[in-house]
Specification:
The complex is a heterotrimer of chains A (279), B (152) and C (276). Chain A has 279 residues and is an all-alpha fold. Helices cover 81% and strands 0% of the residues of chain A. Chain A has 3 domains: 19-93, Alpha Horseshoe (Serine Threonine Protein Phosphatase 5, Tetratricopeptide repeat), CATH 1.25.40; 117-177, no CATH class; 182-269. Chain A has helices at 2-37, 41-54, 61-74, 78-91, 95-111, 115-127, 135-148, 152-160, 167-178, 182-191, 195-199, 203-225, 229-272. A two-stranded parallel sheet of chain B has the order 1-3. A two-stranded parallel sheet of chain B has the order 2-4. Chain B is extended, with a radius of gyration of 23 Å. Chain B has a domain at 47-70 and 77-152. Chain C is built from 14 helices and no strands. Chain C has helices at residues 2-19, 25-37, 41-54, 58-70, 74-82, 91-104, 108-115, 121-131, 141-144, 153-164, 171-180, 184-188, 192-214, 218-264. In chain C, α3 packs antiparallel against α4, α5 (74-82) packs antiparallel against α6 and α6 (91-104) runs parallel beside α8. The longest helix of chain C has 47 residues, at 218-264. Chain C is elongated, with a radius of gyration of 32 Å. Classes of the chains: A mainly alpha (279), B mainly alpha (152), C mainly alpha (276).
């Protein structure tokens, strides 16, 4: 009986030691989390690394790596963030954690505009039988990949798979409709110089293109009619063709610039006013 | 599968040294902007009025930009473009010297074998600023050929 | 007796577990060493500095200095290296690293002022090497390579000769050549494409001017003559400036090659045990 009591005393004191060290790890975790919540990300990473170093039993393994990765993400250091999310995935204990971390990696790929990586990861998630019930979320992120890749029509299609009147589907469709067709602008300018610029609203540039092409075209034709072949060729090659090519370049440039402005308006709304799940 | 994880984790641990370099300076929260970069070239059509010579040159260049350069496309393989080079050259020196620098630049532009001789800007054009040609050796900040100039 | 011993043992371990927090000195040190080995130098510096507030320690001062040197914060590295006292076991090493940092940060004149009185071979090497980066007078060729290992003397002498007689091109000669024959000055500098283009441009406008004058087109004649004049004088001017740029390129390549060579040799200083 006395021996049993001694063993009990010994065990309970040893357990007390262990629970103290666990308590310090927990305190450290809370301290680091507090720094993270105060947006002091650099120092938060230091404290999470300290926790990771002393957590020899890997109790906090995956969480530490995740928080380090989130801190790097907040600092815009996406390569480092992916590195630590990958570590977190290796140490993850259950499929819910793995899924959450995989979507974090996808979100970072969206933010740094590496669409191919993000789409490959989403395809892998979709094929994996463990997350059949996450189809809507996968389509949601696929839509975001297309948004960041400036493919608003494809994004609208992905959001329509979630629901027919999804807010982002309507936004993407409207953005796509507002955009100018670069091909149409170029083809219009091929047929009649200046029309591509008129289409995009750059009337002065269109008029100047039309004017120069008309002037040099008239001079070149006049030269050919008067049998001044060399003059005609010189004017055609060095003057008319230069302004004609410039007209095509401008038609494309203005259409692309306008489209970027339209896309940025929508992206600004999504970043600052949209309240749903964002990268 | 177990070995795959071991190999991956070993690789990640070994590559950790590479990522430490980004933390060699303290950083704070970054605003992760969703917007696409708007790298539109906006010309400065203002007039230099402190000097009649510069005023004349700026007027001529503004006229050239408005009526010709903005219409015939972005053809100059150099940055700054030849017209902008003329302006910079006149600012750095005077009209006459600036004109000589411009004609030298134009000759170099006509050279069809100029690949591999100049550093480049991000868009791929050749970086050839006016301060290299002012006859002042102190101003020459040599950049090797084909090096990407990130500040432009 | 056994009971007293057991009681003492458990009370001690109890107390020990209470004070062994993650922020205790020995744990800060372990973590700092880990960060240092992972090359997370800035974080390791802040950890070492926490320890220095508790107790002064030369090893920590030296490691902090090395960390700053590694992240190329040369000002702080120099400050820390110079703070290590003469009595310290790290004094000799820190002196070497101090001068190495001065060298790396390009403060050659300060280096020369300090090292001119030192006899040790390592310092002599740094002193002589610093002359290769400044415009001050070079020491005698015979003595220059002496402090260096036998296997490296040929390389050092090559750099010495190149510094003494750099392969510059004359801007005056280049300009004169282009005045005599448009484009030849640029060809002299190795710019064959530019030279031929300059020759063709000047010749073309000169011909066009002559042709128009001979056909009594005076306005066009003067126009092409003016353009030809500017292309011709522009080419002379361009040949002179091209020579300046050529010489700047010679200096740039010399410095880059020498710097790379010295980095590979660790500036002829023994490698540091802490950073390998």
């Amino acid at each position: 009986m006395i021996l049993l009591n001694k063993y009990l005393l010994l065990t309970s004191l040893l357990a007390a030691n262990l629970s103290f060290s666990q308590e310090y790890l927990q305190q450290q975790f809370e301290f680091a989390k507090n720094l993270y919540e105060k947006e002091n990300y650099f120092d938060a990473i230091t404290e999470y690394k300290r926790l990771k170093f002393f957590d020899t039993n890997n109790t906090y393994g995956s969480f530490t790596d995740e928080y380090i990765a989130q801190s790097y993400k907040q600092g815009g250091k996406f390569n480092e963030a992916i590195h630590y999310f990958t570590l977190a995935e290796i140490n993850a204990k259950n499929s819910e954690d793995i899924y959450r971390i995989k979507t974090e990696i996808i979100r970072i790929n969206i933010l740094r505009r590496t669409a191919d990586n993000a789409l490959n990861l989403l395809d892998e998630l979709e094929k994996d039988g463990r997350w059949i019930d996450k189809k809507d979320e996968i389509n949601h992120w696929r839509g975001w990949v297309y948004i960041f890749n400036d493919e608003w029509d494809k994004a609208a299609l992905e959001f329509s798979k979630i629901s027919a009147d999804h807010e982002l589907k309507i936004l993407c469709e409207n953005t796509h409709k507002k955009k100018y067709s670069v091909t149409f602008a170029k083809v219009a300018s091929v047929i009649l110089p200046g029309t591509g610029q008129f289409y995009t609203g750059n009337y002065l540039s269109g008029l100047l293109s039309l004017g120069w092409c008309a002037l040099w075209g008239y001079i070149a034709v006049d030269a050919f009619i008067e049998n001044r072949i060399f003059d005609g060729l010189a004017v055609t090659n060095f003057l008319w063709f230069r302004f004609y090519q410039g007209n095509l370049q401008n038609a494309e440039k203005f259409a692309v610039e306008k489209n970027i402005q339209i896309a940025n308006e929508s992206l600004f709304y999504l970043q600052h006013s949209y309240s749903g799940l964002k990268p | 599968m177990k070995y795959v994880f071991t190999i991956i984790s070993l690789f990640i641990l070994l590559s950790m040294n590479l990522y430490a370099q980004s933390d060699w300076e303290k950083w704070g929260k970054a605003e992760n902007d969703y917007k696409i970069n708007e790298n539109f070239r906006n010309r400065d059509y203002s007039f230099e009025s402190d000097n009649p010579g510069k005023f004349i040159i700026k007027s001529l260049v503004n006229g050239y930009w408005f009526f010709i350069s903005d219409v015939d496309g972005d053809n100059c393989p150099f940055r700054p473009s030849c017209s902008a080079f003329l302006l910079d050259a006149a600012k750095e020196t005077n009209i006459f010297q600036g004109s000589l620098m411009f004609f030298d630049r134009f000759t170099r532009d006509l050279n069809i074998f100029k690949q591999g001789k100049y550093p480049r800007v991000k868009s791929g054009r050749y970086y050839d600023p006016a301060y290299l040609y002012t006859l002042s050796k102190r101003k020459i900040d040599y950049i090797p050929a084909n090096e990407i100039v990130t500040s432009e | 007796m056994k009971k007293i011993f057991l009681l003492f043992f458990f009370l001690n371990s109890f107390a020990h577990s209470q004070t062994s927090t993650l922020h205790a000195s020995e744990n800060i040190r372990k973590f700092a060493d880990h960060l240092f080995s992972e090359k997370d130098f800035l974080r390791s510096v802040s950890e070492y500095e926490k320890l220095l507030r508790i107790e002064h320690n030369d090893t920590l001062e030296f490691k902090i200095a090395l960390a700053y040197q590694s992240i190329e914060n040369n000002e702080l590295a120099l400050e820390k290296f110079s703070g290590i006292k003469y009595e310290s076991v790290f004094y000799n090493e820190s002196e070497k690293e101090y001068y190495k940092t001065l060298f790396q940060s390009g403060k050659y004149e300060e280096l020369q002022n300090n090292l001119s009185k030192k006899d040790e071979k390592g310092f002599q090497r740094l002193l002589y090497l610093s002359y290769l980066f400044t415009s001050s007078e070079l020491p005698d060729q015979k003595n220059f390579s002496e402090p260096f290992p036998l296997t490296e003397r040929e390389n050092i002498l090559n750099f010495y000769k190149q510094k003494k007689e750099p392969p510059y091109k004359s801007s005056l000669f280049s300009g004169l050549m282009s005045a005599v024959l448009p484009g030849s000055g640029k060809i002299y500098l190795g710019e064959i494409g530019d030279g031929i283009t300059a020759f063709l441009a000047a010749s073309l406008f000169t011909f066009l001017s002559y042709d128009n004058f001979s056909h009594d087109h005076n306005f066009r004649g003067w126009l092409f003559a003016g353009l030809g004049f500017f292309f011709y004088t522009g080419n002379i001017y361009g040949s002179v400036t091209a020579a300046h740029i050529y010489n700047a390129k010679v200096d740039y390549e010399y410095n880059a090659n020498l710097r790379e060579y010295l980095q590979n040799k660790n500036y002829f200083l023994p490698p540091n045990d802490f950073i390998k």
